[in-house]
Design goal:
Length: about 150
């Protein structure tokens, strides 16, 4: 494991424990060259997942796209990075639990919206406005009414 501080190749594990999501192992390491400590996470490798986009093209699943969408939806909202990471972990777990090699982007979008609704309402509306491609204010208002009625 390469040290993020000095780039050294040799480090040793000081402590190992399950991460908060119980799907990975958190390891504290110490670099043998510079002596600094850092944390790594070890996760089980999953089957490669392909996303089928709206235009029927296919591309490899990319967690960072979900993270970026949620980050922009939660911009200037009272949501911590830790909450976002836990939400992305939950979304990813749900996607991989489908046990499919190919998943439609629309299915991923619905999972994201479902999790965002529980996380933060304004972030949900922001994401939905982009995801559902609201054409006018009335479509936007319809979505808001659905959200208010479900309470």
């Amino acid at each position: 494991m390469k040290c993020p501080y000095c780039g050294g190749d040799n480090s040793r594990v000081i402590d190992s424990r399950p991460a908060d999501d119980n799907n990975s192992i958190r390891r504290r390491r110490q670099c043998d060259e510079c002596g600094k400590r850092f944390t790594t996470y070890e996760k089980v490798e999953t089957i490669p997942l392909t996303v089928i986009k709206k235009d029927k093209t296919r591309e490899p699943y990319d967690r960072s796209k979900i993270e970026a969408g949620i980050m922009s939806s939660c911009h200037k909202r009272p949501v911590s990075i830790e909450q976002i990471e836990k939400t992305v972990d939950a979304i990813e777990t749900e996607i991989f639990n489908l046990e499919q090699k190919e998943v439609a982007s629309s299915q991923i979008g619905e999972i994201v919206m479902d999790k965002l609704k529980d996380l933060e309402e304004v972030a949900y509306v922001r994401f939905a406005s982009v995801y559902r491609e609201f054409k006018d204010v009335s479509t936007f208002m319809d979505e808001l009414k659905k959200m208010l009625d479900s309470k």
